[in-house]
Target: RNA binding protein, putative
Amino acid sequence: MTDRHSESVKEKLSLSLDEIIALNNKQQKQQQQKQQKQQQQQQQQQQAAAGPQRRRRNNSAAAAAAPYAQRGPRQPYFHNGIPAVGYSVKVLGLPVGLPWPRLEGMLRRAFGHCGAIIAVVPRRDGEAWIQFADVSACRVALAEMQSAKIGGQTVTVERVGVEGLGATESRQALLLLLLWGPPGGFRGPCGAGGPPLLIAILLLLLLLLLLL
Model:
């Protein structure tokens, strides 16, 4: 090692000043080119590694946004009453005493695989209605979610008489709404807080005229 260094020193001493400068410039240029090449290789490796991560992030964002693509109701939905149009099932036997946001989240998770959920509506203790975007989701819920466990309770799934699922039950539900009002409200035509009997009779007559 010492011999090589001494030879290099002797070689430089034998060169003229211009030759020494030219040699140093050449060595610096070669070193810069080597560093640039290393930097380019590092950048290429980083870009190659970032590609799959970027694709995974995009796929994750798309998957997270998918359940909310059809969140908005296509038609008006009455929160405390009968769905105007759509495809709904009612879930019976739900656990009572839970905060509604928590129970709603449990229902959305349990029934989410059936199809796109437009709305989940509380009816009364232990009962809620789920409105889907299409009738096929209702069929899946009726077929696969019978006796399912939600919050430790075994539930029963029944269809709600709305568009495409039977007009008789829909009329019965509408009649019940007219006579007894929305859940949690008045309890009867003549009960405390209920509508006057005359109004209830007029509403019933109007319903009968519409059904004839």
Residues 64-85, 162-167, 182-195 have pLDDT under 50 and may be disordered. Residues 91 and 157 are 5 Å apart (CA to CA). Residues 17-65 form the longest helix (49 residues).
